[in-house]
């Protein structure tokens, strides 16, 4: 059988050697699947269209699962696929146990899950607990004050001016997407709360019946076999309400004229308690049903001390993995020192307390990293993101360095977040291989002819190859041993050069050196080790396998980023039995028997 392995010859040798060395190095702590994962976010509308209607779907995702495996992803989280009127692209759920017909059927979902598990990939569903769609049956019943549903949402009469008799909303709260957070319903003669769009109705989380029903919704998916949930917008679950039933106004944010702080609408302690409740529910589910940890990933743009409590407050435990959005803040002015500040902001609190870390640089709500920081820094950042301890989170297309496309949508009802949501660029055929249809829901970025998976697969130092190189490294003992203090270090070596060192003590070591600046930089005596270049970006003048003595001088060209590797010679040479790996063909495809 002839297998084509798309890696350079030296990298193959090294991976084989790494693997064997890795067997010798034993990490002291066991690492659960979510702790050092390569987590890949799929935005289902934009990943792969199987039926030519120009919108991505479940069968499309299923057809590309082997790609996820191939690039080293170990788990995927999928943005909402539930039945929805799509006012907020699925973050407005009409029915929590039904698949949107846009994406397919329940059978398609079951197929996706089965295929993913066959490949050893975990599947995490985006869960949207804070609100339902206004078209959800629960809300319709609540509007009509039907039995049991009367107080499922946050209803209030509002205020009446004693002089004019005029009615106004219960408080000054503003919705995230603009306007008052309160909307009047003629039929019920009350206001309801919505922290996002008016079509995204906040559920009443002080109501035990609501809490129970949401757990039933989770159980429905757990019973189908999902491996966990990514909980959306958890910092908005509970709002402050006085015992006398009134809602306090939010104060004006310090240093602004009329921007309101979220004092009473976000980060209430009650929201953290709900997360503890969910964790207890998930743990209980695992106890009863067996299987691996059902992980809870949490989305909240909250201060680090709030996130720390999400994980645990010392007595109660919550979500395993609150997302770390610090890298979403990086922009064109960020340098290695900025990176260090952002890394420390997480590590000094969360890692220090909970021995966990994760790194998110992109998602469907933020401008993509190559656009924010500049294309020149994309691959260096890939090395940093995956070089750091813990879990890396990748937004579809990040692995090939897709930038935003400002003309993604040009009509009247374009979304402000459309530029970072354009179709995945698979190859240079029609619609970038995303869809065979006549048009796609957002325009494909015209750069797809050069920037796509197929092209990058055939180029040694492409973004995709660097991504694959890093995900392979994440599987080594050195990268898994991140709970011990001496297993890693990171540092801005200068204003522009960032370093990450990963170590399985006495066994192997890897060192990421990334120059985010436009000048050549020199360093003397970084270490007493002789190391090999094991991964290089396109700005590097070096070759794979070349040695460098770090007791002397090492230089980094503008934007050069490299990974150096070292392994304890004896233990590795003894076992270093690289099978016949054939020869490198043009296009750098390798023949392997
Ligand atoms: C495991 O712990 C022992 C003792 O604390 C230490 O000597 C060893 O280096 C550790 N192993 C790894 C792989 O870090
Ligand atoms: C959701 O959809 C399922 C399947 O179609 C249906 O059985 C259920 O009643 C619906 N639930 C709600 C709340 O609309
Ligand atoms: C939420 O539900 C609880 C329990 O049923 C109820 O006491 C409370 O008044 C409701 N809150 C609102 C704002 O309707
Ligand atoms: C309700 O209680 C709060 C807090 O005690 C108080 O500030 C507010 O004036 C009260 N409102 C009414 C209408 O009683
Ligand atoms: C953690 O939170 C729970 C729930 O609010 C509380 O009962 C417990 O006392 C808290 N523990 C600590 C150490 O603060
Ligand atoms: C694409 O356009 C052609 C020609 O107008 C039409 O016949 C075909 O049905 C369209 N296909 C789809 C999937 O809409
Ligand atoms: C090099 O980067 C610095 C910022 O670090 C910037 O001020 C300067 O304009 C850049 N020079 C070139 C030629 O891009
Ligand atoms: C990153 C993320 O998932 N953001 C979502 C947060 O929640 C709102 C409302 O559900 C969505 O609009 C965002 O896309
Ligand atoms: Ca489709
Ligand atoms: Ca809420």
Notes on the protein architecture:
It catalyses: Hydrolysis of terminal, non-reducing (1->4)-linked alpha-D-glucose residues with release of alpha-D-glucose. Residues 1-17 form the signal peptide. Keywords: Signal. With 593 residues, the chain is an alpha/beta fold. It has three domains: 32-129 and 209-473, Glycosidases (TIM Barrel, Alpha-Beta Barrel); 137-202, Oligo-1,6-glucosidase, domain 2; 485-591, Immunoglobulin-like. It contains 16 helices and 27 strands. The strands form eight sheets. Strands 16-15-14-6-3-2-18-17 form an eight-stranded parallel sheet. A hairpin with a 4-residue loop joins strand 11 and strand 12 (190-193). The longest helix has 21 residues, at 269-289. The radius of gyration is 25 Å and the shape is globular. The termini are close together. The protein binds 2-acetamido-2-deoxy-beta-D-glucopyranose (8 copies) and calcium ion (CA) (2 copies). One 2-acetamido-2-deoxy-beta-D-glucopyranose binds next to loops.
Question: Would you spell out the secondary-structure blueprint of this structure?
Answer:
Layout: E1 3-5, H1 9-24, E2 38-42, H2 44-47, H3 58-63, H4 65-70, E3 75-78, E4 82-83, E5 95-99, H5 106-118, E6 122-127, E7 131-133, H6 137-143, E8 155-156, E9 159-160, E10 167-168, E11 182-185, E12 190-193, E13 200-202, H7 208-224, E14 228-231, H8 269-289, E15 295-298, H9 304-311, E16 321-322, H10 336-354, E17 358-360, H11 369-373, H12 378-387, E18 391-395, H13 453-457, H14 463-473, H15 477-480, E19 488-492, E20 497-504, E21 508-515, E22 521-524, E23 530-536, E24 547-549, E25 553-556, E26 561-567, H16 569-575, E27 590-592
Parallel strand pairs: 2-3, 2-18, 3-6, 6-14, 14-15, 15-16, 17-18
Antiparallel strand pairs: 1-27, 4-5, 7-13, 8-12, 9-10, 11-12, 19-20, 20-21, 21-26, 22-25, 23-24, 23-26
The structure holds 2-acetamido-2-deoxy-beta-D-glucopyranose (8 copies) and calcium ion (CA) (2 copies).
One 2-acetamido-2-deoxy-beta-D-glucopyranose (NAG) binds next to loops.
Keywords: Signal
Organism: Bactrocera dorsalis
Signal peptide: 1-17
